[in-house]
Design a protein that fits this description.
The chain is an alpha/beta fold and 197 residues long. The chain contains 9 helices and 5 strands; from the N terminus they run βαβααααββαααβα. Strands 2-3-1-4-5 form a 5-stranded parallel beta sheet, with helices on both faces. The two termini are 13 Å apart.
Length: 197
Protein backbone atom coordinates (compact mmCIF):
# COMPACT_ATOMS: atom_id res chain seq x y z
CA UNK A 1 0.00 0.00 0.00
CA UNK A 2 1.15 3.53 -0.82
CA UNK A 3 1.34 5.54 2.38
CA UNK A 4 1.75 8.96 0.74
CA UNK A 5 -1.35 10.24 -1.06
CA UNK A 6 -1.61 13.55 -2.89
CA UNK A 7 -5.13 14.91 -3.25
CA UNK A 8 -5.78 16.56 -6.62
CA UNK A 9 -8.52 19.16 -6.70
CA UNK A 10 -9.85 21.88 -8.96
CA UNK A 11 -13.16 23.20 -10.23
CA UNK A 12 -14.96 22.18 -13.39
CA UNK A 13 -12.81 22.85 -16.48
CA UNK A 14 -9.60 23.33 -14.48
CA UNK A 15 -7.65 20.49 -16.14
CA UNK A 16 -7.58 17.84 -13.39
CA UNK A 17 -7.78 15.01 -15.94
CA UNK A 18 -4.79 16.29 -17.94
CA UNK A 19 -2.80 16.55 -14.71
CA UNK A 20 -3.79 13.11 -13.38
CA UNK A 21 -3.05 11.55 -16.79
CA UNK A 22 0.45 13.07 -16.67
CA UNK A 23 1.09 11.63 -13.18
CA UNK A 24 -0.13 8.24 -14.51
CA UNK A 25 2.45 8.49 -17.34
CA UNK A 26 5.08 8.59 -14.58
CA UNK A 27 3.74 5.27 -13.28
CA UNK A 28 1.81 6.79 -10.39
CA UNK A 29 -1.44 5.14 -9.29
CA UNK A 30 -4.40 7.45 -9.82
CA UNK A 31 -7.64 6.86 -7.90
CA UNK A 32 -10.18 9.17 -9.55
CA UNK A 33 -13.40 9.98 -7.71
CA UNK A 34 -15.04 11.18 -10.95
CA UNK A 35 -14.34 7.85 -12.67
CA UNK A 36 -15.46 5.85 -9.63
CA UNK A 37 -18.61 7.99 -9.31
CA UNK A 38 -19.61 6.87 -12.83
CA UNK A 39 -18.82 3.22 -12.04
CA UNK A 40 -21.00 3.08 -8.91
CA UNK A 41 -24.07 4.30 -10.83
CA UNK A 42 -23.63 1.92 -13.78
CA UNK A 43 -26.57 -0.36 -14.66
CA UNK A 44 -26.72 -3.31 -12.28
CA UNK A 45 -25.17 -1.41 -9.36
CA UNK A 46 -27.32 -0.78 -6.24
CA UNK A 47 -27.03 3.02 -6.57
CA UNK A 48 -28.30 2.84 -10.18
CA UNK A 49 -31.47 1.06 -9.04
CA UNK A 50 -32.07 3.57 -6.24
CA UNK A 51 -31.55 6.55 -8.58
CA UNK A 52 -33.84 5.07 -11.22
CA UNK A 53 -36.55 4.45 -8.63
CA UNK A 54 -36.20 7.97 -7.18
CA UNK A 55 -36.00 10.03 -10.40
CA UNK A 56 -37.84 7.77 -12.87
CA UNK A 57 -37.05 6.57 -16.38
CA UNK A 58 -36.56 10.10 -17.77
CA UNK A 59 -32.99 10.21 -16.40
CA UNK A 60 -31.93 7.10 -18.36
CA UNK A 61 -30.34 6.88 -21.79
CA UNK A 62 -31.48 4.26 -24.33
CA UNK A 63 -28.85 1.78 -23.07
CA UNK A 64 -30.12 2.07 -19.49
CA UNK A 65 -27.18 4.14 -18.23
CA UNK A 66 -27.75 7.46 -16.47
CA UNK A 67 -28.21 10.55 -18.59
CA UNK A 68 -25.59 12.61 -16.76
CA UNK A 69 -26.69 15.88 -18.40
CA UNK A 70 -30.29 15.32 -17.25
CA UNK A 71 -29.05 14.47 -13.76
CA UNK A 72 -26.91 17.63 -13.63
CA UNK A 73 -29.96 19.71 -14.63
CA UNK A 74 -31.82 18.33 -11.62
CA UNK A 75 -29.21 18.13 -8.89
CA UNK A 76 -27.39 21.41 -9.52
CA UNK A 77 -30.64 23.39 -9.42
CA UNK A 78 -32.26 21.48 -6.51
CA UNK A 79 -29.92 21.23 -3.48
CA UNK A 80 -32.14 18.65 -1.72
CA UNK A 81 -31.86 16.30 -4.71
CA UNK A 82 -28.08 16.73 -4.77
CA UNK A 83 -27.95 15.79 -1.07
CA UNK A 84 -30.12 12.72 -1.76
CA UNK A 85 -27.88 11.62 -4.65
CA UNK A 86 -24.71 12.09 -2.58
CA UNK A 87 -26.24 9.96 0.21
CA UNK A 88 -26.66 7.10 -2.29
CA UNK A 89 -23.20 7.32 -3.82
CA UNK A 90 -20.76 8.63 -1.19
CA UNK A 91 -20.26 5.35 0.69
CA UNK A 92 -19.64 3.14 -2.37
CA UNK A 93 -17.33 5.76 -3.92
CA UNK A 94 -15.21 6.05 -0.75
CA UNK A 95 -15.00 2.27 -0.39
CA UNK A 96 -13.70 1.86 -3.95
CA UNK A 97 -11.21 4.75 -3.66
CA UNK A 98 -9.80 3.31 -0.41
CA UNK A 99 -9.46 -0.06 -2.12
CA UNK A 100 -7.54 1.46 -5.07
CA UNK A 101 -5.22 3.37 -2.73
CA UNK A 102 -4.63 0.25 -0.61
CA UNK A 103 -3.68 -1.68 -3.77
CA UNK A 104 -1.34 1.06 -5.05
CA UNK A 105 2.30 0.03 -5.44
CA UNK A 106 3.73 3.30 -6.79
CA UNK A 107 5.92 5.46 -4.45
CA UNK A 108 2.93 7.75 -3.88
CA UNK A 109 -0.62 7.88 -5.22
CA UNK A 110 -2.89 10.59 -6.59
CA UNK A 111 -6.47 10.83 -5.30
CA UNK A 112 -8.52 12.95 -7.71
CA UNK A 113 -11.13 14.59 -5.52
CA UNK A 114 -14.53 15.74 -6.66
CA UNK A 115 -14.73 19.51 -6.77
CA UNK A 116 -17.01 19.47 -3.72
CA UNK A 117 -15.56 19.33 -0.20
CA UNK A 118 -12.34 20.36 1.46
CA UNK A 119 -9.41 18.19 2.48
CA UNK A 120 -9.97 14.45 2.56
CA UNK A 121 -8.70 12.43 5.55
CA UNK A 122 -7.17 10.04 3.00
CA UNK A 123 -4.56 12.52 1.77
CA UNK A 124 -1.13 13.64 2.95
CA UNK A 125 -0.96 16.75 0.77
CA UNK A 126 -3.31 18.78 -1.46
CA UNK A 127 -2.56 19.90 -5.03
CA UNK A 128 -4.94 22.44 -6.53
CA UNK A 129 -5.26 23.09 -10.26
CA UNK A 130 -6.26 26.74 -10.45
CA UNK A 131 -7.66 28.64 -13.42
CA UNK A 132 -9.52 31.95 -13.76
CA UNK A 133 -13.31 31.49 -13.70
CA UNK A 134 -13.72 32.81 -17.25
CA UNK A 135 -11.36 30.08 -18.47
CA UNK A 136 -13.28 27.44 -16.47
CA UNK A 137 -16.50 28.46 -18.23
CA UNK A 138 -14.89 28.40 -21.67
CA UNK A 139 -13.18 25.02 -21.22
CA UNK A 140 -16.17 23.30 -19.62
CA UNK A 141 -18.51 24.55 -22.36
CA UNK A 142 -16.17 23.24 -25.09
CA UNK A 143 -15.67 19.89 -23.34
CA UNK A 144 -19.21 19.09 -22.23
CA UNK A 145 -21.38 21.06 -24.62
CA UNK A 146 -23.20 22.38 -21.53
CA UNK A 147 -24.79 25.81 -21.45
CA UNK A 148 -22.99 28.61 -19.62
CA UNK A 149 -25.94 28.82 -17.21
CA UNK A 150 -25.59 25.13 -16.35
CA UNK A 151 -21.81 25.44 -15.86
CA UNK A 152 -22.34 28.51 -13.63
CA UNK A 153 -24.86 26.50 -11.55
CA UNK A 154 -22.27 23.71 -11.13
CA UNK A 155 -19.58 26.24 -10.18
CA UNK A 156 -21.93 27.85 -7.66
CA UNK A 157 -22.49 24.45 -6.00
CA UNK A 158 -18.73 23.94 -5.65
CA UNK A 159 -16.38 25.63 -3.16
CA UNK A 160 -15.13 29.01 -4.35
CA UNK A 161 -11.70 29.47 -5.86
CA UNK A 162 -10.67 31.33 -2.69
CA UNK A 163 -11.80 28.42 -0.46
CA UNK A 164 -9.88 25.89 -2.55
CA UNK A 165 -6.72 28.00 -2.38
CA UNK A 166 -6.84 27.95 1.44
CA UNK A 167 -6.87 24.11 1.41
CA UNK A 168 -3.96 23.73 -1.03
CA UNK A 169 -0.35 22.85 -0.19
CA UNK A 170 0.64 23.14 -3.85
CA UNK A 171 -0.99 25.13 -6.66
CA UNK A 172 -0.57 24.74 -10.41
CA UNK A 173 -1.87 27.72 -12.35
CA UNK A 174 -3.23 26.14 -15.55
CA UNK A 175 -3.74 29.19 -17.73
CA UNK A 176 -0.95 28.42 -20.23
CA UNK A 177 0.00 25.73 -22.73
CA UNK A 178 -0.23 21.97 -22.20
CA UNK A 179 3.59 21.82 -22.38
CA UNK A 180 3.84 24.36 -19.59
CA UNK A 181 1.31 22.39 -17.52
CA UNK A 182 3.26 19.15 -17.97
CA UNK A 183 6.52 20.86 -16.93
CA UNK A 184 4.85 21.91 -13.67
CA UNK A 185 3.50 18.38 -13.09
CA UNK A 186 6.91 16.83 -13.81
CA UNK A 187 8.53 19.17 -11.27
CA UNK A 188 5.97 18.25 -8.60
CA UNK A 189 6.39 14.55 -9.40
CA UNK A 190 10.06 14.80 -8.39
CA UNK A 191 9.10 16.70 -5.24
CA UNK A 192 6.48 14.08 -4.29
CA UNK A 193 8.95 11.24 -4.84
CA UNK A 194 11.22 12.90 -2.27
CA UNK A 195 8.38 13.57 0.18
CA UNK A 196 7.12 9.99 -0.08
CA UNK A 197 10.45 8.41 0.94
Amino acid sequence: MTKYVVGLSGGIGSGKTSVSDRFAEHGITVADSDVVSREVVAPGMPAHSAIRKHFGESILLADGSLDRAAMRNIVFTQPAELKWLEAQTHGPIMQELRSQLNDASSPYAILVLSAGGGRSPLISRMLLIDVPEAMQLERAALRDGSSLAQIRAIMKSQPSREQRLTWADDVINNDGSVENLFEKVDHLHQQYLTLAT
